[in-house]
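Input (structure):
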């Protein structure tokens, strides 16, 4: 099999020798399958993925519980400031709102298997912080807009 690292195989390797790739995935826990004409994907041992899901669920439940208690909320907000240093550009109430949205999105990811919402929450608040970090851009963003800006092309 041609691989660039021990935990990577090509789609051709998987097609030609699925048993060997499956054995490698079992022994390593997962292998990355590269594909020249499509996005890469992982072949993951089911028991490892089940444990990862349980871990995420446990962590999200802890954060959710912390967010419901005053000392936990304070610790959570401190942790958010440490993990996401760009929140220094947000107002205090916005940091709290971001924290609440992040915990809710993590809970949804764990309980409902909706992983994208976590990254959407982070990206949205990071974009807000980026605009607020530039006083001129923030001033322009606060100006009223008028008129029709045309059709919006929505792609999925």
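Output (sequence):
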């Amino acid at each position: 099999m041609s691989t660039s690292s021990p935990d990577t195989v090509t789609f051709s390797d998987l097609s030609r020798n699925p048993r060997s790739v499956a054995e490698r995935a079992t022994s390593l826990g997962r292998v990355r399958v590269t594909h020249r004409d499509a996005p890469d994907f992982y072949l993951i041992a089911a028991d490892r993925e089940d444990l990862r899901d349980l871990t995420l669920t446990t962590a999200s439940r802890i954060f959710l519980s912390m967010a419901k208690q005053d000392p936990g909320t304070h610790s959570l907000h401190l942790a958010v400031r440490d993990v996401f240093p760009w929140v220094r550009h947000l107002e205090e109430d916005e940091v709290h709102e971001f924290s609440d949205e992040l915990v809710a999105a993590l809970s949804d990811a764990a309980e409902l298997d909706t992983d994208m919402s976590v990254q959407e929450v982070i990206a949205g608040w990071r974009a807000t912080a980026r605009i607020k970090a530039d006083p001129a851009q923030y001033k322009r963003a606060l100006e009223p807009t008028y008129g029709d800006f045309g059709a919006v092309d929505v792609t999925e």
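Notes: Residues 8-44 form one domain. The chain has two domains: 8-44, 48-142.
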